[in-house]
Amino acid sequence: MAGVGVGTGAMNSLLGKLTALLSNEYNLLKRVRKEIQFLERELSGMRVLLERLADMEEKLDGLAKGWRDRVRDLSYDMEDCIDRFMDRLGSGDAKPKFMKRTARRLKTLWARHDIATQIKELKARVMEESERRDRYKLDESYYSATRTVEIDPRMTAIHEEVKGLVAMDGPMKHVIALLMDESKELKVVPIVGSGGLGKTTLAMEVYRKLGSGGDFQCQACVSVSRTLDLVKLLKDILSQINKDAYKECQSWEKEQLIREIKHILTGKRCGVYR
């Protein structure tokens, strides 16, 4: 379970307000909306690291604590800025008279330009902390130490070339025929049976056969452990279907990973094996 500690609560509150600010209720300038969307993505990645640091509070060194505290203070400053903007913009009367409406437009126009300046300054601070995070190698230092990986016994079949299989050719052709059906609908082909019958081996042989024949534009083979880590699974898929996107995804959360994978796979014939 993700930890909640110094900085995490402030970041959660801030991200909630950024989401509210991006709603249609607030008529943001176009460039401000883009800046806030950037901040939301960048801060979501910072939150992931803050949660890891919260899980390791007693093991943090001075660099990690300093970075965490600066991000916490930055979160408070950003939240104050957003609160002031929301208060000034308000919602107004439902049917104001002409003069009141004109005055309100001038007031909100000034408020929108004012927040543009403040957001620009806050963005510079966010980027500074992101660069400092990379310089300190905080992800590298604290990511591996907080993860426990359960080894799935099926992994041996995924990385092993199997030779001399008995009675595998027929089932493999049958599964391939189901997958290569001309229908454009999504297909799920389950391979069921009791342990030791070679289900994973069969799936891997289908994967290798279709991969060598160029039948699919992209493929991914993953192992789903008994304790599912969905973010790790999505990153595993992304690493196999688009290495360039994978290099950028280390701080992404589930929703952003799903959007990127969906974007990459749209319009392609793909296979995912597990």
Report on this model:
The protein is mainly α. It has two domains: 8-146, no CATH class; 155-273, no CATH class. The protein is 63% helix and 3% strand. It contains eleven helices and two strands, in the order H-H-H-H-H-H-H-H-E-H-H-H-E. It has a two-stranded parallel ribbon. Helix 1 runs antiparallel to helix 2 (30-55), helix 1 packs parallel to helix 3 (62-89) and helix 3 runs antiparallel to helix 4 (98-136). The longest helix has 39 residues, at 98-136. GO terms for molecular function: ADP binding. Residues 171-269 form the NB-ARC domain. Residues 10-101 form the Disease resistance N-terminal domain. Pfam families: NB-ARC, Rx_N. Belongs to the disease resistance NB-LRR family.
Helix content: 55-70%
Structural class: mainly alpha
- Integer-rounded radius of gyration: 25 Å
> Biggest sheet: strands side by side, in what order?
1-2
Give the N-to-C terminal Cα separation: 25 Å
What sort of overall outline do the alpha carbons produce when their principal axes are compared? Answer: elongated
Poorly predicted sequence stretches spanning 5 or more consecutive residues: 91-107, 146-151, 155-162
Outline the biggest β-sheet. 2 strands, parallel
Mean pLDDT score, rounded? 75
Beta percentage is under 5%
Number of domains: 2
* Number of alpha- plus pi-helical segments: 11
Instruction: Give the beta-strand count.
Output: 2
Order of helices and strands: HHHHHHHHEHHHE
InterPro entries: NB-ARC, P-loop_NTPase, RX-like_CC, Rx_N
Family: Belongs to the disease resistance NB-LRR family.
Coiled coil: 22-66
GO molecular function: ADP binding
